[in-house]
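Look at one record.

>
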Amino acid sequence: MSAVFLGVRHHSPACARLVERTVAELRPAQVLIEGPAEMNGRLDELLLGHELPIAVFSHYRDGQRAATSWAPLCDYSPEWVALRAGRAAGAQVRFIDLPAWHPAFAERTNRYADAEARYAEATERLCRQFAVDSPDALWDRLFEVEPDGGLAERLDAYFALVRGDAEADTGDRARESYMAAWVRAAVEAAGDRPVLVVTGGFHQPALRALTASGTGDLADREDGAGWERGADGWPVVPAPPDGAMAGSFLVPYSFRKLDAFAGYQSGMPSPGYYQQVWEAGPEAAADGLLRVVVERLRARKYPVSTSDLIAARSLADGLTALRGHPSPARIDVLDGLAGALITDDLDRPLPWTGRGTLTAGAHPAVVEMVAACGGDRTGRLHPETPAPPLVHDVAAQLAGLGLDGGPEATYRLDLTDATGLERSRVLHRLRVLGVPGQVRTAGPTHGVDPVFTERWEAQSVLGREAALVEAGAYGATLAEAAAVALTERTRSGTAEADGAAGALFDAVLCGMGGFSEQLLEELSSCVGELQATGPLGEILATALGLWRHDRVFGMARGPLLATVIDGATERLLWLLEGARGSSGVDFPRLRAVVAVRDAVLHAPELLSVTREVATGIARRIAEDPQAPVDVRGAAFGLARSLGRVPGSPGAYGDPARVASTVARAGADALGDWLAGLFALARDEVTGAVGDDGDGTDGAAESLIDVLDGLVSALSDEEFLLGLPALRQAFTFFPPRERDRIAARLLERRGVRGSSRSLLRTTADPLLIARARALEESVSRLLARYELDTAP
């Protein structure tokens, strides 16, 4: 006999019923299912007695790429029903799809991600023909609410139509060729008994065509390479390349992850609703949805009366009849609820008229309707389910360190104690792997934070079991898995540069000092590619702070961070010299210049850039009229800080000349230049610079006199325009230093009194300045019309 092909939609109750009925009628010798072929020797694991939904989680990692994939199954998944019913009927059941690590699944995290995007044109045409809003509503109209009679024929016609208008990509063609090889082998093995093939409907027409010849030979792939058979006559399951790490394990899944409104890519939306359809039928599911939505809204104090419920039910019944549905469809119930409960104007379409996640600002009733349809069920694995080695390693470590205190446990850890530090490292490794259970509420936030204790408090453990199994893709032990996860996080640092410094500090918190060579290689590579000075400065400041000051994590003066510090310093000097243009003050960029200064001054033995070279670069930037003004000020301060070498005449440059040149561009430019200077060298104003080394006193050439003269020479209008930038620049000074500046100004003018009189006003200085400008404007207007003469 030949094969019987059932094309299905994933997670469809109607298709699941058809599969169950077909198995009972055919009594096939073989049941072939779209699923990961590497699980064929472990199908008994799937039938241990789990609480669905669950998923087959697959992972792959080599030196070039890493991939993860899920094949989720719920009670009404046709694939699950085929597995369960086929076994019950005595058939041999096999998965026939390629392993998830195969390049055919590149960029695909969900095995059952339908090719709906590729046959969108056909479904849109059908939606117009049947006057429905979305492919989901079309599917309900054609299959879920219609009688089961003729369902197989309707499915065949539907998938032939949509596949006929769509082009399969290279990955789909490879998968279909491989699945066809399994079908031919099964037909040969079954003799005169039937073979049932259950796959996604998109693949069904191609599989039927690929196996139509009935020659018994394996079909050649389009590239001319055939699929090899093993000694048992079945296609060989491709093995991962040498050196690669790959595997598959069962994990608990949840309805939320299955829901299209939460971003799921495949099959039916609203899993909670369709679970009720599967268990009790569409009428009971409609009644249950009405009831649950009302209960949820009332729990949120949203007013819903009995008359509103009656109106929603009546509208749903009316829409069911008007649309010609033999029983209520999901969209009938949702539209009825929306019509009865929402009286406000909506600024966006109702979410079930399309597909995608809910957007911010959705109406409360809509939010609760979507949540009620989605359901909150979470699967649970049977206790005897095999788990990756990481799960056992974590359990042993938590027990050995007394960290398995239950869901209410709180821990206060002393980081100066060896046991406390090790407990902290274990909890941080779980954190970077995304395993829920504990959250840190207090502790050091950067490499030089003088905090030596941590507090960890219990959080929800929902999803902990699945997270641990999925984290097993990173390694067999907790330390190895955390190191690999941080390495991958750093590898993506060029796209999200702000996270690279955080990844470095997380590595320190996790205790990566002894075995994180690959992590540091990735971080060094990231440093060499970053284009943003701010994030790069954060990396340098973090690494340098740890190298100089750490006494808790064992990083001080060690060789571990030398490459990062050297690479970041050299890269920052290059980026700063090439910076061009914009007005205003970029504070992260100024902090990056500060980090460069500290590296050159305090870690010269780590750097390939000498102090003299860095000083020369800083001087060139300071004199470059094309450079951003704040960077010019910072570079001037950097050159003076680094050029403070005894016996080096003129190392400081002429602050009066440079400041005067900048001031010609306006008071706002002067304020930006000063902000850059003060970020690097506040002592230029306070006069606390000491001897130049060329016989002059740094205090004598303090910028205070220069700035006072420049500001005094500004017109009132220029001063008002530049005041915000000038005020921003002086925010770099702490109160004590601002007091010294005020005292110097009073002394310069020969005025006696408290310097605090210049630091405190009765109102906001900007408000006073605007009031003065307004008064002058009024005075000019009065003078213009000769109205300023006293009576």
In short: The chain has a mean pLDDT of 82. Residues 170-190 form the longest helix (21 residues). The radius of gyration is 35 Å. The longest strand covers residues 54-61.
